[in-house]
Amino acid sequence: MNDTFLKACRGEKINYTPVWMMRQAGRYLPEYQEVRSKLTFLELCKTPELAAEVTIQPVDILGVDAAILFSDILIPLEAMGLILEFHEKIGPVFPDPVRDQKAVDRLIIPSPDEHLNFVLETIRILRRELEHKVPLIGFAGAPFTLATYLIEGGSSKFFFETKKMMFSNPELYSGLLEKITACTSLYLKAQAAAGAQALQIFDSWAGILAPVDFERFALPYVKRIIADLRQSTDVPIIYFANNGATLLELSKTSGADVLGLDWRVDIAKAVEHIGPDISVQGNLDPIALLLPEKELRARVAKILEGGRKARGHICNLGHGIHQFTPPAKAKIFIEAVHELSGKGS
Ligand code: CP3
Fold it and tell me: What is the mean pLDDT of the chain?
């Protein structure tokens, strides 16, 4: 198996820089669209054979160095007892937002084996199918990011309801976060036990918080999950706080092996700031894939140079690939990372 990705996570010596792309299994690939045309997104997530098939698509088509489980961060919230819908053009919707004690009390902490077995089954299939290919990354949303979806009832612009709960009813907020944290810990442990070889925690909305609020209302729960995972598994853990350039020092205290960097930060400066004792992942602007090839390669070279000073570097986009990206552009990116970092030489 190609284990450059796992080695880079742990800061071990490698011959070239591994690369994968957040949201690499998805709508920009015609092969995904073909599978997806027959069923809804949630049905696809819950059909292990097909979820495994679309997980492997970017590995075979683009030659990435890691596969990420096809699922969604919101899946375990449905298992907590909530109704989850995906609407075309709007995105995820929770028709019954969680905004009072009664709603928090109603949430269950699901047993992964019982309520999320389809995810574990997808992982088991993938480990067999990826045996001679690349490692498999499992994932979950960070408790704060998951809470925003529950409290707002979907995506949001100002996160008014979330911040209102945080600031005006911190007990209610922490009670909700405790439950999401317990659920996420069990869920990630179960993914590792089923065969996930690395785990990424997506904190997509961390960047809407002031550092003091991140430290109080988001980070403690991530720390707890990571400390808890360390009791039962040694798989590398990646923490990605999107829009988190101002949160890097705090994020480093999460206990993760790897920090994800979005594109708004200069990778060389970020590495200088957080020090050479932790690995980093990132950080090309996903839409920069549309640059002319020569300029794209120059950007990649710069990112590789910045990453070289870190303990380990996994090249990636700074956020998920945009759905209207031509796959050929993604392929140029993957090949440029390999070539410019010395693969095959
Ligand atoms: O390839 C992979 O990265 C694995 C699969 C994956 C999906 N979602 C598939 C998906 C992963 C890791 C996610 C994570 C996720 N989901 C995040 C964190 C990463 C980030 O983008 O910040 C978030 C916030 C979500 C929630 C979510 N899921 C939204 C807001 C949406 C709608 C908007 C959008 O981008 O489509 C989804 C739907 C979703 N998740 C799709 C896919 C492939 C599109 C569904 C479709 O086929 O119609």
Answer: 97
